[in-house]
Amino acid sequence: MKAKDFDQAFENGGDITGELDLTRARRPELEQKRVNVDFPVWMIHQLDREARRLGVTRQSVIKMWLAERLKEAA
C-alpha cells in the first residue's frame, strides 16, 4: 500500500492494522524491566493481605502504590 493510500484510509477511519508490521512495535517508557527488591517479612505479609483484599497479585499492589506515589511527586 502506498503512503498516500495508507493516509487516506487512516483519515477515513478505515482499519489499517493489517498494513502494519507490529512485530517490532514498542511502547516507549512502558517496556518492562525486571528489578529485585528486598522487603522485610512484615511488609510482605501486609502486601499479601492487601493483594488478597483487592483480588490482585502482590506485584500489582506494589506497582499501583509506586505509580500513585510517583504521580504525586511529579
Outline the structure in words.
- The protein is built from 3 helices and no strands.
- By secondary structure, the chain is mainly alpha-helical.
- It has one domain.
- The longest helix has 16 residues.
Q: What is Rg?
A: 21 Å
What's the total helix number?
3
String of helices and strands: HHH
> Low-confidence segments, ≥5 residues, pLDDT <50?
none
Question: How would you describe the shape?
Answer: elongated
Q: What portion of residues belong to β-strands?
A: under 5%
Number of strands: 0
Counting helices, strands and paired strands, the structural category is: mainly alpha
Distance between the termini: 43 Å
Q: What is the mean predicted local confidence, pLDDT?
A: 92
Helical proportion?
40-55%
| Sheet with the most strands, sense and barrel status | none
Number of structural domains: 1
Give me a quick take on this structure.
One of its GO terms (biological process) is regulation of DNA-templated transcription. This is Helix-turn-helix protein, CopG family. By secondary structure, the protein is mostly helical.
